[in-house]
């Protein structure tokens, strides 16, 4: 198969293999940590979770990145990205260990959220750095394939991390704390794996590096303005459109995620353990969809072009969401989770490729950080909308229809742009 042959060629790039190893360990740890948060916040038997409380938790954990993200981008265009991966993962190791202690101590929720926020805040630097560094370790002809394999493999690693977290819960006495410590150990492994790369391998160019923090922060406003102007230039209009459409697709995915959380917690299971098992199946189905997207997208984007492939993904989701989700039954909804994994990840791979191929190296860090911020704001906005629309058991026809309409609008808008 052509895909297998291309993957073998791609994996011959030593820098790519090592960067991929850091991503797999880092995002595997993210999967473990996120499941620990979900089980502690949503599926603890003593907690009566509502859509509003889920939305509040997402706001606390994600909205501050609207402030952190732009600074991350400017710093990533000045700091050595390999060092960001090293020290970022070391810091997350320490912070995750603190979170485990807080879980054992049964502290107030606000203190737990502060600790969790600290871990995931550092994640903004690490993920943006991984994306910005990818063009430094592959040649331009294989960038689409690299964008297909690397982020998707990271997502699959996060899914496997989630599966590991579920397994640890089956054998751990103080299960939530043990799961968090497993995540901390994986963060440490990711930090050690980054040492296999030379400090200057991942860029940025030497003349762009600004080692003094104060000087780098002083140029934040100018750097962001320059990044926005760069993205607004005519040769990069497709990148701007791709970012907008991917943000809206993330909004749809977030709203459906909250709905599935509520269905697992209250509509489909008699207790929290059964609900958590169903959530694990949904996560696994979505992860399988991500894998299929990694296989299909290089061929589809090559035939149609990345922009048209995004339109196809959005259009397919517009049809599948009402067809599969309006029954509010576990089996069709799990199928929907798989199909949305394919369409969402397929569109993301195409978007990453458009942005990386259109944006100059000196701007990639800040553009990907803005991309990350848009993702978080969209997810929180989706959770807020879901909190207003979802009943206590998670069954909402109006939410499913609204999401399908947004998907359809995305498909039409992107298709019209591609025809210009």
**CATH homologous superfamily grouping:** MFS general substrate transporter like domains
Roughly what fraction of the amino acids lie in strands?
A: under 5%
Q: Determine the mean pLDDT.
A: 83
CATH architecture: Up-down Bundle
What is the distance, rounded to the nearest whole angstrom, between the alpha carbons of the first and last residues?
35 Å
CATH topological fold name: Growth Hormone, Chain: A
The poorly predicted ranges are none
The number of distinct β-strands equals 0
Strand/helix succession: HHHHHHHHHHHHHHHH
Please indicate the count of domains: 1
Summarize the amount of helix as a percent range: over 70%
Q: Counting H and I runs of at least 4 residues, what is the number of helices?
A: 16
Rg, rounded, reads 20 Å
Indicate the structural class. Answer: mainly alpha
Please give the CATH class: Mainly Alpha
Largest beta-sheet characterization: none
How would you describe the shape? Answer: globular
Structure description:
With 420 residues, the chain is mainly alpha-helical. The chain has a single domain, classed as Up-down Bundle (Growth Hormone, Chain: A), CATH 1.20.1250. Helix content is 82%, strand content 0%. It is built from 16 helices and no strands. It has helices at 2-10, 14-41, 51-62, 65-76, 81-104, 109-133, 143-171, 175-194, 213-218, 220-232, 237-267, 272-304, 306-325, 330-358, 361-389, 397-419. Helix 11 packs parallel to helix 15. It is globular and about 60 Å long. It starts with a helix and ends with a helix.
Keywords:
single chain; 420 residues; mainly alpha; Growth Hormone, Chain: A; globular
């Amino acid at each position: 198969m052509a895909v297998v042959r291309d993957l073998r060629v791609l994996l011959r790039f030593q820098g790519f293999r090592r960067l991929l190893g850091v991503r797999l360990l880092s995002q595997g740890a993210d999967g473990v940590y996120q499941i620990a948060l979900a089980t502690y916040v949503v599926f603890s038997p003593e907690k009566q979770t509502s859509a509003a409380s889920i939305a509040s938790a997402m706001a606390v954990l994600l909205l501050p990145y609207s402030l952190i993200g732009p600074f991350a981008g400017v710093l990533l265009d000045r700091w050595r990205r390999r060092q960001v991966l090293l020290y970022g993962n070391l810091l997350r190791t320490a912070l995750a260990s603190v979170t485990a202690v807080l879980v054992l101590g049964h502290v107030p929720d606000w203190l737990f959220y502060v600790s969790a926020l600290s871990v995931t805040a550092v994640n903004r630097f690490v993920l943006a750095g991984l994306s910005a560094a990818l063009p430094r370790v592959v040649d331009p002809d294989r960038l689409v394939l690299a964008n297909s394999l690397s982020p998707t493999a990271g997502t699959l690693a996060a899914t496997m991390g989630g599966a590991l977290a579920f397994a640890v819960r089956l054998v751990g006495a103080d299960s939530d704390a043990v799961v968090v410590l497993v995540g901390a150990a994986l963060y440490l492994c990711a930090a050690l794996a980054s040492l296999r790369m030379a400090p200057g391998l991942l860029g940025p160019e030497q003349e762009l590096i600004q080692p003094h923090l104060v000087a780098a922060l002083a140029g934040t406003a100018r750097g962001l303005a320059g990044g926005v102007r760069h993205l607004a230039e005519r040769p990069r209009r497709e990148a701007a459109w791709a970012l907008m459409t991917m943000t809206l697709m993330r909004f749809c995915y977030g709203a459906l995620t909250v709905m599935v959380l509520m269905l697992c917690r209250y509509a489909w299971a008699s207790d929290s353990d059964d609900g958590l098992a169903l959530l694990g199946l949904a996560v696994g189905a979505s992860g399988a969809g991500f894998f299929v997207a990694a296989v299909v997208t290089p061929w589809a984007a090559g035939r149609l072009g990345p922009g048209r492939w995004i339109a196809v993904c959005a259009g397919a989701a517009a049809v599948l969401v009402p067809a599969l989700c309006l029954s509010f039954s576990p089996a069709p909804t799990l199928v929907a989770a798989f199909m949305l994994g394919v369409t969402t990840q397929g569109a993301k791979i195409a978007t990453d490729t458009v942005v990386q191929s259109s944006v100059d190296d000196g701007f990639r860090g800040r553009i990907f950080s803005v991309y990350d911020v848009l993702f978080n704001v969209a997810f929180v906005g989706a959770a807020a909308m879901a909190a207003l629309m979802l009943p206590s058991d998670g069954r909402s026809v109006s939410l499913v229809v609204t999401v399908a309409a947004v998907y359809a609008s995305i498909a039409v808008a992107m298709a019209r742009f591609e025809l210009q």
